[in-house]
Design brief:
About 40% of the residues lie in helices and about 25% in strands. It is α/β, with parallel strands linked by helices and about 300 residues long. Strands 3, 4, 5, 6, 7, 8, 9, 10, 11 and 12 form a ten-stranded mixed sheet that branches. The protein has a two-stranded antiparallel ribbon with strand order 1-2. A hairpin with a 4-residue loop joins β1 and β2. α1 crosses α4. The two termini are about 45 Å apart.
Length: about 300
């Protein structure tokens, strides 16, 4: 059986529509049907029920779907590793990273050195909003960001690689700090501390509106390194990704957010018109370092 047949079968199962799948794969419907028949013959079982109105997956078909995805994942990973090891690449790449997210790079850089010793990696400490602006202005090749809506993002591609739990940051003697877990609704009537002129603040304020949470008031801090002063002065609560605990302010407490919208994706953002070949190689290394979806990738 050809690997392409496995990919075609997976595509049919995910769409449950032969016509749409054939069009997306740029092949004829009759060819797709023949290939699926070969798959069923090789597996020795009927994998799909199909009539003029609908397509359904049999129990055997669901099993084969999962197994094919695992086989292709293993194949792709092996092929990527061989490709990486067989080429003597050279070049340089400049990456903007928040200093409190450097633990991600601690997993990426050793692999980068192992496979691409001749590609120079320059890491520049940026807060996420300035990093995004630097990316737009061609000052860096990649920005490590929290993935939410950004303005003027038509020229930007996002490569998600992990998930971060959102947390509430408060004073240790604040009532919310006594909880290990909390929900967005627990912020009703609280003073909310947000970053001034910051895209992540736009994201968190939209999150409050989405859950109909009305804060007592909204106050702003100019920088994450000074946010603890604002939290102390106002007895407020900040919504931040869990990596922010790496700032290590002993007077503050962390309460993890649970429920819907309790995580934010970590992403490597880059301009689609940046022709630096080191970008695609770096992203392959990122996928090697973080091969599976992560619910949290920060140190405990």
């Amino acid at each position: 059986m050809k690997l392409e047949y496995m990919k075609e079968y997976i595509a049919v199962v995910e769409s449950l529509n032969f016509t749409a799948t054939a069009n997306r794969l740029m092949m004829t419907q009759s060819a797709l049907s023949r290939h699926i028949a070969v798959v069923e013959e090789c597996m020795g079982a009927q994998l799909l029920y199909r009539d003029t109105h609908k397509v359904e997956v049999t129990p055997c078909g669901r099993l084969i779907y999962q197994e094919f995805k695992q086989i292709l994942s293993i194949y792709d990973a092996a092929a990527a590793k061989v490709m990486l090891m067989s080429k003597d690449h050279q070049g340089a790449i400049r990456i903007g990273v928040p200093y409190y997210c450097m633990h991600y790079m601690d997993q990426i850089i050793p692999l980068m050195k192992e496979y691409y010793l001749n590609i120079a990696v320059e890491i520049v400490s940026f807060q996420p909003t300035p990093a995004y602006c630097a990316l737009l202005n061609h000052q860096i090749d990649i920005a490590m960001l929290f993935h939410h809506d950004y303005p003027d993002s038509d020229d930007i591609r996002f490569h998600d690689f992990a998930k971060e739990t959102l947390v509430f940051m408060t004073k240790k003697n604040y009532p919310l700090a006594q909880k290990k877990f909390a929900e967005i609704k627990d912020l009703t009537g609280c003073v909310i501390v947000a970053f001034r002129n910051n895209y992540f603040s736009d994201f968190t304020q939209a999150l409050l509106r989405q859950h109909d949470v009305l804060p007592k008031k909204l106050v702003y801090s100019d920088h994450i390194d000074t946010m603890h002063y604002t939290i102390q002065e106002t007895k407020g609560v900040a919504i931040v990704p869990i990596s922010a605990k790496n700032i290590n302010r002993p007077e503050l407490a962390i309460t993890r957010l649970v429920g819907e919208d309790s995580t934010v994706n970590m992403t490597m953002a880059y301009r689609f018109d940046n022709n630096n070949p080191a970008i695609s190689l770096f992203l392959k290394i990122v996928d090697m370092a973080f091969p599976l979806p992560q619910s949290e990738n920060s140190t405990d």
